[in-house]
Amino acid sequence: QVQLVESGGGLVQPGGSLRLSCAVSGGDFSRMVMGWYRQAPGNQRELVASITPGETRNYEDSVRGRFTISRDNAKNTVYLQMNSLKPEDTAVFYCDAKTVFGVALADWGQGTQVTVSS
Question: What would the pLDDT profile of 2-22 be if each residue is shown by its tens digit?
Answer without folding.
Answer: 999 999 999 999 999 999 999
